[in-house]
Amino acid sequence: MIGKLTGTLLEKNPPEVLLDCHGVGYEVNVPMSTFYNLPAVGERVSLLTQFIVREDAQLLYGFATAPERQAFRELIKISGVGPRTALSILSGMGVADLAQAITLQEAGRLVKVPGIGKKTAERLLLELKGKLGADMGAAHGPAASDAQADILQALLALGYNDKEAAAALKALPPEVGVSDGIKLALKALAR
C-alpha cells in the first residue's frame, strides 16, 4: 500500500524514526543499517517501505535500499519469523553478509543475532537458499573469494563482530592470500 516515503526527518529513536511527509508524521521502524545512514534531524530523507497490517496494529518498516527491503520481505515469509525478528536480523548483519551466510550455509553467523536460535537459523538457511543467496549479495558487491571467506571466518572465530570483520576485509588488497590477509586485517583492527 505505502511503498515509499519522502519527507523531513523529525525524530530518530532507534529503531523508530518519525518522518514528516507534507504535514503527516509517519512512524517508521528501520533496521540499524538504515538508521546509521540517515541524515541529521531536519534533513530530507527517502525510505522504501513495507506496510504490515496485524489484528492489533498497522506498522511501517523503512529501508534505505531495495535489497534491504527485498531481504525483509523474504524473511517475513518464513514461518516463525515476524517483522521484529526480520528487523533484528537485518540490524545484526547487512544484506550482503546475510546472503553470504545463506550461500555458505553458515548457521553460526545467524545464531549471533539476538533472538535467533539454532533451529530458527537452520530454518532460515533452508528456506532462503536460492532466494537470498549469492544473487542478493552480488547486487551489493562482488562475491567474496574463497580466501576472503576464510579470512572472514578467522576474524569471526577470533571474536570480532561481522561489521568489524567486513570493514577489515574491505581494506585488504583483492588477491591477498589467507595468512597474509589475516595478518593485515588484524593490523587494521588493532588501530
Automatic annotation (TrEMBL):
InterPro entries cross-referenced by the UniProt entry: DNA_helicase_Holl-junc_RuvA_I, Hlx-hairpin-Hlx_DNA-bd_motif, NA-bd_OB-fold, RuvA, RuvA_2-like, RuvA_C, RuvA_C_sf
Annotated localization: Cytoplasm
Keyword Ligase part of the UniProt annotation: no
Region annotated Domain III, chain positions: 145-191
One Pfam entry name: RuvA_C
Domain Helix-hairpin-helix DNA-binding motif class residue range list: 73-92, 108-127
Keyword terms, alphabetized: Cytoplasm, DNA damage, DNA recombination, DNA repair, DNA-binding, Hydrolase
Location of the region described as Domain I in the Swiss-Prot/TrEMBL record: 1-64
GO terms for MF: DNA helicase activity; hydrolase activity
Notes concerning its domains: Has three domains with a flexible linker between the domains II and III and assumes an 'L' shape. Domain III is highly mobile and contacts RuvB.
Assembly and oligomerization: Homotetramer. Forms an RuvA(8)-RuvB(12)-Holliday junction (HJ) complex. HJ DNA is sandwiched between 2 RuvA tetramers; dsDNA enters through RuvA and exits via RuvB. An RuvB hexamer assembles on each DNA strand where it exits the tetramer. Each RuvB hexamer is contacted by two RuvA subunits (via domain III) on 2 adjacent RuvB subunits; this complex drives branch migration. In the full resolvosome a probable DNA-RuvA(4)-RuvB(12)-RuvC(2) complex forms which resolves the HJ.
Summary of the function given for this chain in its UniProt record: The RuvA-RuvB-RuvC complex processes Holliday junction (HJ) DNA during genetic recombination and DNA repair, while the RuvA-RuvB complex plays an important role in the rescue of blocked DNA replication forks via replication fork reversal (RFR). RuvA specifically binds to HJ cruciform DNA, conferring on it an open structure. The RuvB hexamer acts as an ATP-dependent pump, pulling dsDNA into and through the RuvAB complex. HJ branch migration allows RuvC to scan DNA until it finds its consensus sequence, where it cleaves and resolves the cruciform DNA.
HAMAP family, per the entry: DNA_HJ_migration_RuvA
Family: Belongs to the RuvA family.
Protein name, as recorded: Holliday junction branch migration complex subunit RuvA
Annotated source species: Acidovorax facilis
